[in-house]
Description:
Elements: H1 2-21, E1 44-51, H2 56-69, E2 74-77, H3 86-94, E3 98-101, H4 114-132, H5 148-153, E4 158-159, H6 173-183, E5 188-193, H7 197-212, E6 215-217, H8 220-226, E7 236-237
Parallel strand pairs: 1-2, 1-5, 1-6, 2-3, 4-7
Helix pairs in contact: 2-7, 6-7
This protein binds nickel (II) ion.
Amino acid sequence: MARREWFWPLVLFFLLAALLLWPRPEPPKAMEADALTPVAEGTKLVALTFDDGPKARTTAKLLDGLDQRGVKATFFLIGAQIEDNRELVLRMAQSGHQVGIHTYDHVALSDLSESDMTAQVERTRQALQELLGDESFFLRPPYGLVSDTVLRHAQTPLILWSVDPEDWHKRNVQREVAHIVSHVQDGDIILMHDIFPESVEAALQVIDQLHHAGYAFVTVEELFAARGTALEPGQVYRYCPPPG
Ligand code: NI
């Protein structure tokens, strides 16, 4: 009889032990954020940047693709388009993307007086600040055009680019992917536009190809932080190569 009393507790014990020691499935890779802050030394980094949005359908599709891949990017927004796309801008920030300014009306800042230039930047900054709470947003001047006035009064780093597939021009996915993949180097900033379906498709293909080539995708802010480069207001930045 005494032997019987041990039977069920023993079964229960082994069942519990098996349950606790059973190997758990790994979380799916795509869900792991590319959260490369801090970034392991020697990792090849690249920053994808998107201008001229937000635009309802294309930007939403891009954000879906970035989320699926756990990739962070940087969006330079046109101020006039923020009001109608508030949810998209909030989603960008919540997903860990960096948001920046691309003027209020997409104008060449180099042609403007100091007060008109400041108004273009400030109006956009205020729209973003109301929505996101942050105060500091980098500026990408439309067409990459800067003047002494812009440099002196922008009060934020000016972010240009080092890889330009001219995706607004021919709108050909394969051509854009081939251009980027063949030109990209560690520390580059890639210029694209999330207002074209072809650009969104090309960007996602580029991410998949460069992931295989060992690249990690970071925001502009993270790229410079990972390499210990402090960004100064009124300075122009195009890329951030590895040290040495
Ligand atoms: Ni633009």
